[in-house]
């Protein structure tokens, strides 16, 4: 593990965390492509690493900023979190049976579809 590798990881985390906190978009949208391009990870390894990075910082620090300003519905968040936990387990299990190519293409299609929907909204 080189100093450049460590500093690159910290810089990537700061950049992705800043954008995620700013626009409320999951960090994986930015982090997964960065991990595949800059760190040469497979799609599955990038997805697993992305999920691991989001466990504590997004769950605690970014949330706290929104909560202090009254911009978080805790009751709804609890139900979503339970569903997210169940769905995350099933999705993670299913992803292990797909090829990296299929996962990467599915990820790309989802990003394009979301971009088109956001662009077309008034």
From TrEMBL:
It comes from the Bacteria. The keyword Kinase does not apply. One of its GO terms (cellular component) is plasma membrane. It is a multi-pass membrane protein. The chain crosses the membrane at residues 45-64, 76-96, 102-120. Keywords: Cell membrane, Membrane, Transmembrane, Transmembrane helix. It is found in: Cell membrane; Membrane. Its main location: membrane. Belongs to the 4-toluene sulfonate uptake permease (TSUP) (TC 2.A.102) family. This is Probable membrane transporter protein. The lineage of its organism: Bacteria, Pseudomonadati, Acidobacteriota, Terriglobia, Terriglobales.
């Amino acid at each position: 593990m080189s100093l450049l590798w460590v500093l690159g990881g910290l810089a990537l985390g700061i950049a992705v965390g800043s954008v995620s906190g700013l626009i409320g978009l999951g960090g994986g949208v930015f982090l997964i492509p960065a991990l595949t391009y800059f760190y040469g990870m497979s799609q599955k390894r990038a997805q697993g690493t992305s999920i691991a990075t989001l466990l504590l910082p997004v769950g605690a620090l970014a949330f706290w900023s929104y909560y202090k300003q009254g911009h978080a519905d805790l009751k709804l968040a609890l139900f979503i979190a339970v569903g997210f936990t169940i769905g995350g387990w099933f999705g993670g299990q299913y992803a292990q049976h797909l090829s990296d190519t299929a996962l990467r293409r599915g990820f790309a299609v989802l990003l394009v579809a979301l971009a088109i929907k956001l662009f077309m909204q008034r």
